[in-house]
Amino acid sequence: MIEFQNLKKVYESGGQQVAALDGIDLKINKGEIFGVIGFSGAGKSSLIRCVNWLEKPTSGKVIVSGHDLTALSVREIREVKRNIGMVFQHFNLLNSKTVFANVAMPLTLAKVPKDEIKKRVHELLEFVGLADKANSYPDQLSGGQKQRIGIARALATQPSILLCDEATSALDPQTTSSILQLLKKINKEYNITILIITHEMSVIREICDRVAVIEAGKIIEEGTVFNVFSSPKTPTAKNFVSTVMNDQIPDSIKQVIKKQQGLQKVFRINFVGNSAGQPLLSQVAKKFNIDFNVLFGNITELQGTPFGNLIVEFQGPDSEIRRAIQYISQEKVSIKEVTTRAS
Amino acid sequence: MLVNQEKIIEALIETVQMVAFSLLFSALIGLPLGILLVVTRKGHLLENTVVFNIINSIINIFRSVPFIILMVAIIPITRMIVGTSIGTAAAVVPLVFYAGPYIARLIENSLLEVDPGVIEAAEAMGATPGQIILKFLIPEALSSLVLGFTIATIGLVGASAMAGAVGGGGLGDLAITYGYQRFDTTVMLITVAILVVMVQGLQSFGNILSKKIRRR
Prior knowledge:
The complex is a heterodimer of chains A (343) and B (216).
Chain A: E1 2-13, E2 16-28, E3 33-37, H1 44-51, E4 59-64, E5 67-68, H2 74-81, E6 84-88, H3 99-109, H4 114-127, H5 143-155, E7 161-165, H6 173-190, E8 193-198, H7 201-207, E9 210-215, E10 218-224, H8 225-230, H9 235-244, H10 251-259, E11 265-272, H11 280-287, E12 291-302, E13 305-315, H12 318-328, E14 333-337
Parallel strand pairs in A: 3-8, 3-9, 6-7, 7-8
Antiparallel strand pairs in A: 1-2, 1-4, 4-5, 9-10, 11-13, 11-14, 12-13
Chain B: H1 5-39, H2 49-64, H3 67-73, H4 75-82, H5 88-112, H6 116-124, H7 129-168, H8 170-180, H9 185-215
Protein name (chain B): D-methionine ABC transporter permease
Pfam family, one (chain B): BPD_transp_1
Domain ABC transmembrane type-1 (chain B): 12-204
């Protein structure tokens, strides 16, 4: 649906060349919700803006719905843009126009007949739950309501792609959640491909199917949300994951581990999917001559799959512990010894 | 008093004519120039450094010549357009040369205030540059544009009085020839009072209109 091929964007600033995008290769499939996460300045904004040509890449290709944008004329690109809706961080609504006129704008530009516009706009306002605000002005609305209008406007021309440029970053957590649910609904009901860029991992966790981590203009990690969250590889990805997955051992527990010296060993056990439902630890306790003590743990749901994280202390003879570990290290359960320093 | 009421009304009408016509023509020149100044600048819709620099310098040249000198300097042009350099119609030409570039700057200022995000949204929708100017830039800046035109109109009232002094007629002419040169304080006071009321009225009207557009 959207494909970037060796995409590069270089800015000149003060005689120096800065590569905002440094060879991006990425493919976003039809009907999925794809998230791109990165710190500010990582290049995520440049990336999303290349999809609808708000930014022209220095080299490389952008292929949208089979059209190679680099090969199209300005006029043809305008046509492609009608098939792409965009939602902005700061909504970018016209303050001089009513909610109705704002949502109608893309249709007006496309010279759609008036009665058709009227019907479509009311439909859209109904969909985003603001049918009663048609005659209000944007400055009479709350941030969440403005974003709903922004979304309605982006959907006006029935696009097959929706771009969300930090769409929830200016909103409070509760509003963010309701906007994300709306995006999910759009994805499900209209089968619209959604590309989201954000710096909030919670956004990715809540609605994305796949995610790419961008840093210094490069995609450093890419995969299903489940894989990236359960086993992030790069430090940046780990960092992002830790902002929403509380998998760090609390300091107080570290102190406890440090104080006790002797036979016990501390392990981190990660459960994935169905294995989270198995009575693994009690089986271990029955089979082997060891005691265990759960120090810390949590279970998070990712893409409808449970993901558990336990810090467990084993007490017993080394040989027994080794056998227990072997038993535990089955599919979808990973176990790793934890030292207090490098938790 | 050396003049009668009729003469004052006649002068008032001349002033209004001068201001109205020069406002009309300078708006016709200033509006497109102001829009061009915005859209041709770096990073904007129709970035074009050459066009921008040319318009920018021409406007600066006209804006740096004091009106009283501009008026005299362009007499040949005035003669070419109107056929004479004396009278109300002839005064309109230098007034347009004065107010046109001024209005272009005021419009430039107003349009630059428009949130770049709105223009970005327009571009994302696939709007053409023409559509962006007419359906996004101008409506979003309208309230501020009205205030700009108010300032320009008041500037023209002042300038028209100066034009009057060199044979353009109007309230300025009256004040100079009777009030100043013939020491008729009453005429002086009356013309000043009329001008004050006029400016107050224009400003209030502009404020109300601008506010109405903003809030609706």
